Structures are given as C-alpha cells and as structure tokens.
Amino acid sequence: MSSRKTIFGQVVIGPPGSGKSTYCHAMSDFLRSQNRKVALANLDPGNDVLPFTASIDVSKLITVQDVMENFNLGPNGALVYCMEFLEKNLDWLFVEIEKFKDHYFIFDLPGQVELYTHNNSVKNIMKQLEEFGLRLCCVQLVDSHYCSDPGKFISVLLTAMTSMFQMEMPQVNVLSKVDLAEQHGRLHFGLDFYTEVLDLNYLLDAINKDPFMKKYRQLNAALIDVVENYSFVSFLPLSISDTQLLKNVRAAVDKANGYIFGAGEENQRNIVALLSTAVGAQFHGELAGTVSEKYLGSDDFHEDDETYENENSMSVD
User: Fold this and answer.
1) Residue 120 in this model has a pLDDT that exceeds 90
2) Global pTM?
3) Which residues of 228-263 are buried (b: 16+ CB within 10 A; e: fewer)?
4) How much is the pLDDT for 301?
5) What is the pLDDT of residues 133-159, one digit of tens each?
6) What angle do CA 215, 217, 221 make, to 5 degrees?
7) Cα→Cα distances 189→50, 124, 184, 301, Å
8) How many Cα neighbours within 13 Å face the side chain of 73?
C-alpha cells in the first residue's frame, strides 16, 4: 500500500432518471479536455445501454438479468444480490483498477435509492476501495424538476441527507438538468432558495396551499426541522451542456476528494491554480442568479418568490 500511488475519483449516485450515466459521459469528456486521464467504471449491473465506453464494466462479472433468471428474483432484489455479490468479489474490481494506473476514476452506480440509504453493500464497497488506495467523493444527482413541487423537494433533502450519513463519504449534491427545471411548473422561489437550502418554512406555506398536503403540515414541519438542524445539504446547479457549470462541479469534487492537494498534473500545485480551484469564481448566490437568468424565467417572479424576497428585505433593513 505504501508504494501505490493515490488514485482519485468520484462515485456517481442518484435516483433513476437523474442523468447519472449522461453526467459520467459529459464529465469524463470535460476532464479529458483538461488533460486528465479518465477511466469510466460501470458498476450498475442492470444498465446494459451505456452512453459511454466503459473501461471497467461490472456486467462482465454479473448482471441483473442473469440473477433474475437463475434465482427467480425481481429486478430490485436481483440488483441488491448483484451489489452484495460484487462486495464479496472485490478482488475482480481491484484487478481491473490496476490496469489503469495514473487514471482518474468515475464510477457510475445503480439508481436504486435503497442501496445508499438502507443496504450496506455499496457503503462497504466504498470503504474497501478507500483501503485499496482510492480517494473518492460521492456525487449525488437529483433532477431539478423536483424543485417545482415543495413536497417532493423535502423528500429530495431527506434522501440527500440520509445518503450522506449512510455512505460516510465526502458528498457533492447536484441539481441536474437545471435548464429543464421549470418544464413541469414554475419554481415557487428563486433558484438560490433551493441550491443553498434557505429558510424551509416558506415551503410549508407553499405546501399548505395544497388541500391534500395541508393535513401533513405537522409532519412536514418536523421533517424540515431535521434538515435545518443538521444543515448539511446544499446543491450545485448543473446542465451538462454548460461548461462553466461542469467546471464548478469539478472544482467542488476536487476539493472534496483531495485531488487539488495530491494530484500529479502539471502546475496543479501552483498556488494560483490551487486557490482558483478551491475557492471558485462565484459565490453560490451569484452562481444561482446567473443560472436563473440563463435558463429560468427569472424576469417573472412567482407570487411566493416575491413574498420571500420582500420579507427578507425587511429583515435586512
């Protein structure tokens, strides 16, 4: 272990449809354009249609389809079996990783949320990878359209926080497809409200306007208290077609997994490059404002957004 060079990478998780595989493809292309050698690893045994060429593919070891046919399991049970099988056969993965020396790894994982909130297999796999010499950061993607539904956004916050506790890894939370955030309805507040997870009590007022959700107000209030008391969760907006947003996510991940402190890239230890990567060019509020102006209908304030802005202006005065 002492002679093995430290390997850096990111582990991409998130619910189905959040854009994990597309993100892996886009981020790998972006990193390669920055002269970084990248190895893509597909650790989703149920994904047989990849938008990228995988350097390591778990389907060579086991697939969900084979497990379903041989053990009469459903897709969810088969996926759990596959991850537990991988955990017991990690020597295979270690051998594959050894083939890509001096590479930066991006691991594409399954979308079954239970794997990161209840089951311990993925957590144990990550711990063994770290013992093997990898320095990893978890990147959790969440579809931005959940922001348009206050109840769903609370669920997103709880899922993100639970996975942070369960995985026990540095984690960067990302609102993916931000260019499509309002495809299913206007946001109740400005984008910075969701990325910085500001005063969530305003979400309760929005939920209370829904006759069905009103009866769960006390439950939602308790859940919001849990999120705010821990104050762990924040998000970075991302559209994979936007190079600046990819750069922001890359900078956050490089800080989280320690890449900026231990990478071997030319000029990486230069103090200017180090600070520019660590600090970034924009604060979260400024970044959210730029993204809103570019992708969202920021000129037309929603009624709830206007109330939020007015009340906060009064509190500042």
Assistant:
1) yes
2) 0.87
3) eeeeebebbbbbbebeebbebbbbbbbbbbebbeeb
4) 42
5) 999 999 999 999 999 998 899 999 999
6) 160
7) 35, 39, 15, 8
8) 16
- For residue 139, CA distances in Å to 9, 15, 104, 144, 171 come to 10, 12, 15, 15, 6
| Six-digit token string for 255 | 């800080």
Which residues touch 52 (CB under 8 Å, ≥6 apart)? Answer: 21, 24, 25, 28, 40
φ/ψ region of 217 (left if φ > 0, alpha if ψ in -120 to 50, else beta) reads alpha
Confidence at residue 317, expressed as pLDDT on a 0 to 100 scale: 45
Tell me the two tokens of residue 163.
């996975």
Can you give the pLDDT at residue 316? 42
Q: Alpha-carbon distance 120 to 116, whole Å?
A: 8
What is the structure's pLDDT at 314? 45
Buried b (16+ CB within 10 A) or exposed e, 37-53: ebbbbbbbbbbeebebe
Flag whether pLDDT at 205 surpasses 90. Answer: no
User: Which pLDDT does position 151 carry in this prediction?
Assistant: 87
> How much is the mean pLDDT over the chain?
86
Nearest by Cα to 59 from 125, 10, 6, 108: 108
**Bridge pairing between strands 104-108 and 56-57:** unpaired
Distance CA 159, CA 29 (A): 29
What burial class does residue 267 get, using C-beta atoms within 10 Å of its C-beta: 0-12 exposed, 13-18 middle, 19+ buried? Answer: exposed
